[in-house]
Amino acid sequence: PEMHGQIQSPQYPRPYPPHLQKQWDLWVPRGYQIQLSLTHLDIKVSADCSQDSLTFFYDEKVLGKFCGQGNSTDHHGDETILSPGNKLTLVFQTSDSTPEHQQHTGFSATYKAIDIDECSKTDPGLDSGPLCSQICINTAGSYHCSCHKYKLMMCASVNFINSLFSLTGYL
């Protein structure tokens, strides 16, 4: 899987064609999520973006649906979509606009893999509490658990230690 990339609507920066449904399936390695930034958006406006739109999905759940132009009331400039996991699906669909009247250029976006902070999550088996019982250390694409470090102090009486071993039958 790619760690970063760019996606553009067909024919970008020229006007996009009518009667189109194009899908992109993005994947990054496990332990990462996808951060996608829309750097350009010019998609014909319609109520609820029902005609032309760019829709983002994660496991069939809609994360966002866009139409309009950058810095308009329908779109507020650079939008960022963050997938909950390591995949993201984009669907760009266009209606049957007459090509001569359609002058919208579509979209351009960049994406990159972002490390998931597993240590900020809770244990899915327990539905509460942290993943690690003591220390959670987030690493690139993963995490590991560690224990608090204790230092034994040798200031206790040697006689106490000897008597402890004698009581347990080790000496």
UniProtKB/TrEMBL annotation:
It holds the Pfam family CUB. CDD domains: CUB, EGF_CA. Gene3D superfamilies: Laminin, Spermadhesin, CUB domain. GO terms for molecular function: calcium ion binding; serine-type endopeptidase activity. Residues 1-114 form the CUB domain. PROSITE patterns: CUB, EGF_CA. Keywords: Disulfide bond, Glycoprotein, Hydrolase, Immunity, Innate immunity, Protease, Repeat. GO terms for cellular component: blood microparticle. InterPro entries: CUB_dom (IPR000859), EGF-like_Ca-bd_dom (IPR001881), EGF_Ca-bd_CS (IPR018097), Sperma_CUB_dom_sf (IPR035914). GO terms for biological process: developmental process; innate immune response; zymogen activation. This is CUB domain-containing protein.
